[in-house]
Amino acid sequence: MYERFYSPNLMALASSQVGEDSLSHQPDLAIGVHLMDRYTFYLLEFLEDIHPASKSNMNDLFKVCPKSQCVSTPGHRTDLFLRDPGSVLITDFFGSVRKIEITMETINLTDPIQQVELREVMFKVDWGQPACIKT
């Protein structure tokens, strides 16, 4: 499926190639279904070991489930990605840092006057002929 992508700065992963099955890993005997495929299991196992100081990069992520473990051929596509995946840390790709400002002041996030006005407008709606229907 990722062969159809064309937007810049995308990286894609697949648990198997076209024509292959992505095989199940572990069943939940209580409900009688498999919870995830092999690729997802090993990917999750890899990501659970990542911590803020990890030096693992995206190329390491591409190796999480070799064919011998997945019993399928995982794939990835990086030609649309604008950087070398080997230089992109997992923590940078999946992580997010937001600049915040801590304040001790109380900030009122709702303006009571606007709420009353909004309520008045809501009850004055004219439910006449819908504009999307031509008469």
From TrEMBL:
Keyword line: Signal
This protein's GO CC annotations: GPI-anchor transamidase complex
Superkingdom: Eukaryota
InterPro entries: GPI_transamidase
GO biological process: attachment of GPI anchor to protein
Identification of the protein by name: GPI-anchor transamidase
One Gene Ontology MF term: GPI-anchor transamidase activity
Source species: Notothenia coriiceps
